[in-house]
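ugh ok fine here u go
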Amino acid sequence: MNIQDIDHSTDSVVPTPKWYDLYYKKGGAKSGSVLLSFTCVRAGDYTLPKLDHLFLENTVKYFEFEVSMNILGLRGLESPGLLPIKKAFLQFNLKSMVPPALGGSLENIKTEPKMAGSDPTLNTLIEFNAPLPKDTLFCPRMAVTVFDSIAMGLRQPTVGNFTIPIGDLMHELIKEREDEMNELENVLLKLDKMIKGEVMAESIRTIQKVKMEQEQKLQENDLAKLQV
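structure:
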């Protein structure tokens, strides 16, 4: 990552952080991302704030979310050593999603090493609550590590790892729910208009009926007078 490619300020105004991709070497595969807020000033022209005051949890709003995941299984696992895959299992690193100050109430979750082989079916449901930021800029990703259980768990070599964009998924769910609520409100509004229209139409029909009855009575009275 070249410094000239980073958006930065040259004064005391701290810019909004942005995500930047990381690479082991130029032109290589992406190896991660980093969130940076960068300021470049001449030495002596700017006094950096004390690090003790830079707590994101004081500025980022969090909401409690309930997460439910059905883990179906793993496929095509390759052993990192000479022995084939014995009994693979997953470790969900919940603490990787939140700042250290908020991670004390979270515990990492593991699946049980049950089915043997490189294509194990886990069929496990995991549920947990986690505080996630409201701002999409700070949406976390949950790190998940795949381990192999060898010799009844005495050895647990790492097979691989991946991430789940929990934050993005939760915000997509929030947007989906908001769209559903907006659509429901539109349906209710249309129904209300239809009901009001039917009531008005019924009122008009009633008025017309009363008017016709009155006219009929007047005609009958006029006919009776003529006969007299």
